[in-house]
């Protein structure tokens, strides 16, 4: 990508039975100033979404992403032609397999440099499990395919950003994963991710695990024994990190601008404040999921397949718009 070019973002279609294709159809015309978009999916499924949404987009099936350039009236689709029939709102092994194939192809293209970034529509974990996937979601799959050991999920909603020491594991296991090494590594990739977003000297808050960040050991030892040493090691490496900070107040401070990101200890600790801000009505769902630490760029919507409304053309595209724009922004920063 040259400075004069827009980044080429490959957008995976997600589970064919979900809302992925329709939010892509709605989002694509809104991001033409930011990026060129090529959908990696099934062209007929995308055409179906065009009809559902009452869009005037023309779907152009392509065999290669070379020289792909999107336009307000045209949506290129790298057609894997792997959806035999379409039924919305159903958990289907074939759909799980198809959605995995979209992600695999996108990773291959990104590693080869044929696309500048990936933005993913939601997959359904039960469908991909039925298809034989060992991964709980996109993040672990991306890390495995790129041979990345140190990575984290960053969620972005407006000025609030959070990363996670662990995500899709049981809560009892998540507590065991709060080790000095894991917390320190998450702080490190968080700093890298923030620099990718153009924040050159980030300030990072590190949430405690226990109430009141352990209250000096009275409410748990992990904060003093694991988190505090990790913060000290990160600071020694030149990262502006602070913590452990009581988790019931740190997100309020970060949302007010005191910190550029909060390192969260587990899935719900980081997800709840983000979704409180991003899921502010039944009509609009915003927010971005970005995997930090990868050699390639990947963003995603911050919601699921929404089987309950799939196929009706009413799903909010706001999060997909945010995801594509964020992917393009990082691509420009890395160029």
TrEMBL record:
Pfam families: PdxA. Its EC number is 1.1.1.262. The lineage of its organism: Archaea, Methanobacteriati, Methanobacteriota, Stenosarchaea group, Halobacteria. It comes from Haloferax volcanii. InterPro entries: PdxA_fam (IPR005255). It is an enzyme of class 1 (oxidoreductase). It comes from the Archaea. Keywords: Metal-binding, NAD, Oxidoreductase. One of its GO terms (molecular function) is metal ion binding. The keyword Magnesium does not apply. This is 4-hydroxythreonine-4-phosphate dehydrogenase PdxA.
């Amino acid at each position: 990508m040259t400075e004069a070019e827009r980044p080429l973002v490959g957008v995976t279609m997600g589970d064919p039975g979900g809302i992925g294709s329709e939010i892509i159809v709605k989002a694509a015309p809104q991001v033409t100033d930011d990026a060129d978009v090529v959908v990696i999916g099934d062209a007929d499924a995308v055409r179906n979404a065009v009809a559902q949404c009452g869009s005037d987009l023309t779907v152009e099936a392509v065999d290669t992403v070379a020289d792909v350039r999107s336009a307000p009236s045209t949506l290129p689709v790298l057609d894997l032609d792997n959806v035999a029939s379409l039924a919305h709102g159903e958990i289907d092994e074939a759909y799980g397999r198809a959605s995995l194939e979209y992600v695999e192809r996108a990773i291959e293209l990104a590693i080869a440099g044929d696309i500048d970034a990936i933005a993913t529509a939601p997959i359904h974990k039960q469908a991909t499990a039925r298809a034989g996937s060992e991964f709980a979601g996109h993040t672990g799959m991306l890390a495995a395919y790129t041979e990345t050991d140190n990575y984290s999920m960053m969620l972005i909603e407006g000025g609030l950003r959070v990363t996670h020491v662990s995500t899709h594991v049981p809560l009892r296991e998540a507590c065991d994963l709060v080790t000095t090494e894991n917390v320190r590594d998450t702080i490190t990739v968080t700093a890298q991710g923030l620099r990718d977003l153009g924040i050159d000297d980030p300030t990072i808050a590190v949430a405690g695990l226990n109430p009141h960040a352990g209250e000096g050991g009275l409410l748990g030892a992990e904060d003093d024994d694991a988190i505090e040493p990790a913060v000290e090691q990160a600071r020694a490496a030149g990262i502006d990190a602070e913590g452990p900070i009581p988790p019931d107040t740190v997100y309020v401070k970060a949302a007010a601008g005191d910190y550029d990101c909060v390192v969260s200890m587990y899935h719900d600790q980081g997800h709840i404040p983000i979704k409180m801000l991003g899921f502010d009505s039944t009509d609009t769902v915003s927010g971005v999921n970005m995997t930090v630490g990868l050699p390639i760029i990947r963003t995603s919507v911050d919601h699921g397949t929404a089987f309950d409304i799939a196929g009706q053309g009413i799903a909010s595209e706001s999060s997909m718009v945010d995801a594509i724009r964020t992917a393009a922004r990082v691509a420009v920063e890395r160029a």
